[in-house]
Each structure stands twice: as C-alpha cells, then as structure tokens.
Batch of 2 targets.
Target 1
Amino acid sequence: MTSTPASVPVRKTLTALDHRIEAAVGRTIDQLWQHRDRGLLDGPHGALVDAHCDLVKAETAVTFYRVLLARLVSGEFPVDLALLAWIDRTVDQLAEAVGERDAQQAMVQAALEPIETAAPPRPPKQVSASDFAALLAVTQGAKLHEHLVTQRLAVATPSRTRISYHQLQRLEKAGLVHRDTSHPVHAGQPITLTDAGRAVLAAPRPAGPPGTTPPPFLGASTLLARTRR
C-alpha cells in the first residue's frame, strides 16, 4: 500500500468527487469532516466521509509521486543509471498510487449513490440555546439517574451541564434524543442523540436575540457557559 507523505496536508487535497458530494449533502467537505470528528453524522453520511478520507489520502499519494517524477525528469539531476532506476521506481509507485486512488474513488461513489437517490432530508428543527447546549452535552455521554432515597430523576453529564428531567422529556418528545430504557433508572439510563438531534447540531446556527439561539460558529464551551448564567 502506498503511504501518504506526512509533509503533504491531507485536508487540502481535492478529489474529483468533492463537488458531487457537496451538492448531494448540502455542506462543504470541511464541514463534513468536522461533523464526522464530532460524531454528528448518521450511518450513511459517516460511511461516505470515511471513504472520502481514504480517497483524499490516496489522491495525496498520487500528487506526491507525480510531482516527484516531474522533478526527476526536469534536468535537475545528472542523467545516469541511478537516476533511471529512481525514475523506474517512482513510475511504479505512481502506478500503484493511481490504482489505489481509483479503487477508493469507486468506494466513495458506492457510498454516495444511495445518498443522492434518497429523498431530500427535512430541514433540522430550531432549538433554544439551552436545548442546543443540552444536545452538545449528550454527545459527550449522558445518563438519567434516580436517587435511591428521594426518587428524584436527574441527568448526569461529564460536562455537568444542567439538563432537567422536564427538558429531557421535551427533547425526547421532539425526537432529538433517545433514552435506553432497557437499563434500570437507579443504575442510569444512557441517553444518545437521534439522527434528528445530530442534524440540529450539524446545521448552521442562525443569529438571534440573546438567550434564544446562539450566533453561528459559537464553540461548545461558550454555549455551555451561557446556559449556566
């Protein structure tokens, strides 16, 4: 397998399928990669981005060996048997990289076609800043617990974001989170995002009055801090 040189920035490499992917999903490639890193994509979109990442690496290798071959034949080096052997090796490496790139491109196309033929997704719901922060906290892990003495229900999160039971019920009713009721409440019922919940976090956030919706591109720490005021 061809290795991607560390000196080449992977995310800057373009592929022949970038525009087609962006048109199908309605987001830029950079946004898709960011959403994948944050766990905001559903199964088909996550598989598409994973395949695209491999394609980018393969395309980077093609670019590396193509540039190297151009340098070898540019006249920069003296023509001797060692140079000819170097050129032969580079041609073989370039051919291998092209083959791997073509194979990865076919995998991206296979992952992309079902998304292209699927019905257009519904626009994600708009939620308040408090609910948005709660959804962010759920991505880090959340459980509903019942106090053994008081029987009071409370949601525990690693970020210690306050999520009331009433708020949890509202998010469940909106179809944004799922609670695993197969676990007993006293032991903690895991709470996860649904596809609709992930879509809310992945969608651009419109600007609005303070305390309603956060402006675009606010970091998670800012959102979490705002809900504690």
Note: Residues 81-117 form the longest helix (37 residues).
Target 2
Amino acid sequence: MPTFTASDGTRLAYRVQGTGAPVVCIPGGPADSAYLGDLGSLSAHRRLVVLDLRGTGRSAIPEDTSSYRCDRLVDDIEALREHLGLARIDLLAHSAGANPATQYAARYPERIGRLALITPGTRAVGIDISGQTRRELARLRKDEPWFPAAFAALEAITEGTGGDWDAVSPFLYGRWDAAARRHHAAGRPRNTDAVAHFAAEGAFDPEATRAGLTTCKAPVLLLAGEFDLNSPPRSVAECAALFPDATLVVQQGAGHYPWLDDSDRFVATTAAFLG
C-alpha cells in the first residue's frame, strides 16, 4: 500500500484501484476507507486513489491528536495532491469526508477539477438537520418490519433520552439485508480519538467556507439518497445552492451508501459526471 508524508510528518496511506484518470476519494467516519470498497465498480471507469485518514486504516496515528480536526485534514488532501504530482484533482468525498473536501474546495478552488460529494455531511457549511426532518424521512420506511424499534430509537436520540445509534442503522440503507448488516458492522469507526477530535472547537468556520465556495468554479455533483437520515435530500439541496456550478441528484431507493443500494445507478451517475 503506497504512503506519503503529511506536512506534520505523519505517514499516510492510500490504495489505488482501477485505471484511467485518477480521482482522489475521501472516506467518512473518520473510519477505515475499506468500507468504500471500489464504490460499486466505479473503478472500472476511473483510477480511485482512496485515502486512509490519519489514524485509520493503514495510516499512522499522529503525535498531535488535535491534527484529527476536520480543518486540519485539508492539509492532508493537499499533501496527497502534491505527492501525486497533479496540478488539479478530481475529488470525491463521502459522508463526513465531504466536510474537509468542501473546506479544501473553499481554500484551494483553483486546484479542483471536479468535485463529487456523495451523501455529504454539511457541518463545514453550517447546515443543521432538524429532528423533524429526520422523523419525516424516517416515516417513509413505516412498512419495513424493523421500523417500530428503529423509529423508537430515533425518537429517543432526537429527544435526548437515548443514544442507541446502532438501532437506527437500518435507516441508512435502502435494504436492511445481510449485506447491509455486514457492511454496517465492518464500517464502524475504530479510532475514538479521531472521532472525538474531528469536530473539536475551531474545526469549522461556515461563514468563511461559504465565502470561499463562491470562488470555486469547478463542476460539483451532490448525490443524496432518497431515504438517508444522515444526509437528507433537503439538506444536500441546501448545500448544492452554495456552489456556482452544482448538480443535485437524488438516487431513488438509496440510503447513505448509494453504491451498495444500486451500484449500476450510482456508477452511471457518478462516472458520467466525472467523465
């Protein structure tokens, strides 16, 4: 697995899959990037350069835990661009990984070729998701056999009386089948320090990030899942409005991992955008 050195000396790893022009992929979590797989065979169309965020996968644990902060991860993306010798990068980010990717686009707009944000987190641009929005979206699944228990757990989390996030995981998948259960178990974040420091004080400056995005002229794809409680289509649409050249796609029947729910549709949309 190839590695490179971040600006603070931390050794970071990445894996390469597929052939063709590279697209740098940033996972969410912060979790081992293995949960992305080959993004539903997107690697048949582009060469995926998938970063293991610091302290996850095969990347080293940094000496300074404050470097797990979201805005600090922007430096790691820039170091990877320099390591690859690219003047500009096509960048794809999933979930929480969309936060440093969005901050990167705001800080280095001229270094973005195309930007694909897949079921993106929106904390970097200050878009909050209300409990009511999540409830409304959850009720679309009311006929699923797992719904009563999952919705009760969601209500408890929303009201601040519970915290069983595993119980609401069916809402993140278009189908809560054996494959989804395996994927959920394998994709859990393992580095508690990385998770705890990701959103530490100073990690986000939404006003500055929004201002920076107005100068990002690169084409941007924002792909939402119809049923995704983590990144509801309404919130993703609000994020899309911040970019000068954005395309919003809502993948029907999908949750937070659209390449699992319908890989053909996901790859068709994403590969066409990336070119």
Note: The two ends are 26 Å apart (CA to CA).
